[in-house]
Automatic annotation (TrEMBL):
Name this protein carries in UniProt: ATP-binding cassette domain-containing protein
Species this protein is from: Rahnella contaminans
Highest taxon, organism lineage: Bacteria
Pfam families (alphabetical): ABC_tran
A GO molecular-function annotation: ATP binding
InterPro entries for this protein: AAA+_ATPase, ABC_osmolyte_uptake_ATP-bind, ABC_transporter-like_ATP-bd, ABC_transporter-like_CS, P-loop_NTPase
Residue ranges constituting the ABC transporter domain according to the UniProt record: 6-257
Keywords for this protein: ATP-binding, Ion transport, Iron, Iron transport, Nucleotide-binding, Transport
BP GO annotations: iron ion transport; quaternary ammonium group transport
Coiled coil regions in record: none
Amino acid sequence: MTQSIIELRRVFKSYSPSTGKKLFSREENKPPVNALDDISLQITAGEIFVIVGLSGSGKSTLLRTLNFLIQPGSGDVLFQGQALGSLNAREMIELRRSQIGMVFQSFALFDERTVLDNVAFGLEVSGVSRDERHKRAHAMLEKVGLAHVAAQYPHQLSGGMQQRVGLARALVVNPAVLLMDEAFSALDPIIRRDMQSLLLVLQAEQQRTVVFVTHDMEEALRLGTRIAIMEEGKLVQVGTPENIINAPASPYVRHFFSGVDTSRWQLAESFADVWQPTL
């Protein structure tokens, strides 16, 4: 049986419906918003697990509980069998540095650092010598096709190239898990597809665990080993692309792949009620 690397057990997270100064007294009586509502799931080592949902469905909150950037209100998050809630601040920082990498939509590169030093940053923080971290950073830049711009600065690069740098920076420390929050959504469609292809190539080589958040079902179907669909803080369906296409749990789930060519994932028996042979 394939081992799970991340497990969530009945995780809840609620937020106040308003922030800052209340302008209307009736806001005080609004119930809290359940960003995560009784989430239980297991993420298997080596899979690309994609989380899909509309804006406000809780998908980014769920992603950030996996490395405790957001702590759940209740429930347990386990990494390799250890409850993250049991770690102290120093242990949590070390886990994020060495075991759980993250790539953001906004690139989050350091403008004053060269591309090479941006990629090497995590190794520098971990105390790796300059020569060694530059060697490893350069090797990772080669993997993402950017070795030729190692001496340049982020502002000299296109958006797609900047996102490749962000991906290289996350991967160079060789994390067991890579969290990606809408990582490609700000890119042009052609560049976005190139980045998807790059991720799939790197995944075929390295077989790490990737948790990928998107609102784009076509992207989810292309990348995902399994897909989780969220609605108002709840997991409404988790399954392989084939499972979700051929047996959507609700009209909400079906809505996500309306307009998407799903023929690649549809099973022959799913057409049985549509087509019958002439006798």
